[in-house]
Design brief:
Elements (H helix, E strand, L loop, with lengths): L1 H25 E4 L3 E7 L2 E6 L2 E4 L5 E8 L3 E4 L3 E4 L5 E12 L2 H6 L4 H17 L4 H6 L1 H16 L4 E12 L2 H92 L3 H15 L11 H23 L4
Antiparallel strand pairs: 1-4, 2-3, 2-5, 6-8, 7-8, 8-9
Helix pairs in contact: 3-5, 7-8
Length: 320
């Protein structure tokens, strides 16, 4: 009796476990930025988004879980040949996200492998139209062309390619060495140009300095000469003014003397005596030519006669 009850209990527990397992397998909770592609009896049923979903046991199944976030795939380096027949290795990085889970699930068998192969072929086509130098300097152009081509090709697969980047461009060792030598020569050329330009600017500055110095010296000499000329002119003006003032003073003194003589009522004898004094001053030995007025000549003859008479009288007087 006890064993029969225990067996019945175990059977019930097993049935409950099976039921719970079946129920739990039918309940699906879809998180954010995820989607479930569900099939019923092998055919597409629908795409379940965020939330709680119930599947019919043994009839419905989840065909694919899809991540709707943007994803990044770093593909290994691919050998490519440029237009000038240089072989190099280039690896790419592709950014994409899934726009349609149904197309992603049924559009292509292995989407990532398909994107990788499509990336390699597109890259070879683009690089084949470019030379080595263009390839090394046209990363942005290559990225844009690849992104456009991949986006168009992957659209039927429910994939949106947002960006493509060339991660590394690795030319052959001989090409790298030649490029390094070329870069070194270019740097040396630029250095020589910069040094020459510096020396040129230095010489120009020195010449401009000499020029400005000469101009300043000439201006200083000019101003000094002007000041000396002005000083000399002021000196001559002052000397002329002094001489004029002296002459004016002498003339005024003579005029005052004549006025005093006139006011004193001097006779002709006094005037003749003054004339003799003036003649004596004129004949002081400095003048080379003397013009004697007729009045002074008569006075001079009179004086000579008086001197002769006085001398005769002195000779006739007896000695004591």
């Amino acid at each position: 009796m006890f064993f029969e009850g225990l067996g019945t209990f175990l059977v019930v527990i097993i049935i409950l476990v099976i039921v719970l397992a079946i129920v739990s397998s039918c309940v699906r909770i879809v998180p954010q930025a995820r989607a479930l592609v569900v099939e019923r009896l092998g055919g597409y049923l629908g795409t379940y988004g965020v939330g709680l979903h119930i599947l019919v046991p043994f009839i419905d199944r989840v065909a694919r879980k899809v991540d709707l976030r943007e994803q990044v795939e770093d593909f290994p380096p691919q050998p490519v040949i440029t237009k000038d027949n240089v072989t190099m290795m280039i690896d790419t990085v592709v950014f994409y996200y899934i726009t349609d889970p149904k197309l992603y699930a049924y559009g292509v068998e292995r989407p990532l492998q398909a994107i990788e192969n499509l990336t390699a072929t597109t890259l070879r086509n683009i690089i084949g139209d470019l030379e080595l130098d263009e390839t090394l300097t046209s990363r942005e152009t290559i990225n844009a062309k690849m992104q456009e081509s991949l986006d168009i090709a992957t659209d039927p697969w429910g994939i949106k390619v947002t960006r493509v980047e060339l991660k590394n461009i690795m030319p052959p060792a001989a090409i790298q060495e030649a490029m390094e030598k070329q870069m070194k020569a270019e740097r040396e050329r630029r250095e020589s140009i910069l040094r020459a330009e510096g020396e040129k600017k230095s010489m120009i500055l020195v010449a401009e300095g000499h020029k400005e110095s000469a101009v300043l010296n000439a201006q200083a000499e000019k101003e000094a000469a002007i000041l000396r000329a002005e000083a000399e002119r002021e000196k001559k003006i002052k000397e002329a003014e002094g001489q004029a003032e002296a002459i004016r003073t002498v003339q005024m003194a003579q005029a005052d003397g004549i006025r005093f003589i006139k006011e004193a009522g001097a006779d002709n004898a006094v005037l003749q005596l003054k004339s003799l004094e003036a003649f004596a001053a004129a004949a002081n030995g400095k003048a080379t030519k003397i013009i004697i007025p007729s009045e002074i000549q008569g006075i001079a003859g009179l004086v000579k006669s008086i001197v002769e008479v006085a001398g005769t009288e002195k000779a006739e007087m007896p000695e004591k």
